[in-house]
Amino acid sequence: xxxxxRRGLIAGSAALAxxxxxxxxxxxxxxxxxxxxxxxxxxxxxxxxxxxELCLQEHGGKFGGRxxxxxxxxxxxxxxxxxxxxxxxxxxxxxxxxxxxVHSGVVMALVQAARERGVPxxxxxxxxxxATRDLCSPSVFRSSFSNWQPAYGMGKALAAKGxxxxxxxxWDYAAGKESGEGFRxxxxxxxxxxxxxxxxxxxxxxxxxxxxxxxxxGVDAIGSFFAGGGAVQFVKDYAAAGLRDKLxxxxxxxxxxxxxxxxxxxxEGIQTALHYGDGLDNAKNTAFRAVFKAKIxxxxxxxxxxxxxxxxxxxxxLDATKGDASAVKPMAAAILAxxxxxxRGAFTLSLSHNPVQTIYLREAKGGENRVIGxxxxxxxxxxxxxxxxx
Length: 390
Ligand code: PHB
What we know:
binds P-hydroxybenzoic acid
């Protein structure tokens, strides 16, 4: 049974008089973690959740002075189940903050709920450009990237190397399509051209029909977006098909992120572009990687970094409102004004609430995605169609 103190009652009636729900003093704030804990993106969801919890621990288990109750929900990276899953968190579990998700299709249900109900949402991965373009909202934030950003960096770096024509291979869904557009824009910025886009349905991994077409395309290189289990399989199949020496493979950094061990020798030498890399030499990254390894017993990767930074952003927002998650305006103002001390390097958000960040060029070597250069410095997503940005 819940004990309501006299002070609590008075605070409650004062809040009611102000037309706001009572912020029960000392009551934990409920945060929903909607992520994939099964399927091709399961490892990504696990690292995001683990690092978010690590950030919470580092804040003494409190955000904005309030204890936190976390509610985990496995979204299975299934867009068809997404609206119902979001509803479960908001109606059944009564969460006050949403953190999620990985998949660009699934995230749209979260974005819609955050826009309609004014519930704060921090996206710790999904790069669907609409979330911080046409559908941008005061209550929607991203701690990760837009699908356009890493692929733009890769296209630019490839063109700078003298590649003139390239093709894009990916899953047929928003993340694949939008990263292909970033790749195209990056190639164009360097005077090169995207000539073909080849797709298969998400999350299929029968790559043979596509691999068989690649040598006949007349391109100098292949760019790609795959992630998680699908990326493991694609990189292995690409090598097994004997394509590595004929057609250099590159991509958005997710292609080799968190998956180098199972990819083994097949990944050696693959260049990718991402807002993170192994061996990034800054104090925050060194400390983060050590703590993550010690507590979680895995190596940190970009997904862990994004989960951790979602926690850091939420801490900033809730500190500004003393734990009131319904006060979206001051939360947003505080997060926008903050410099987030990320393991990727400190970043700020653009006016559409997407990180402005350096995209590194990396090369897979000896089980690491080593940073070998900068593909695009302080890159912001264009934020096209976002009214907050004009
Ligand atoms: C996405 O669907 O937006 C997505 C999924 C996995 C990644 C990156 C982006 O690694």
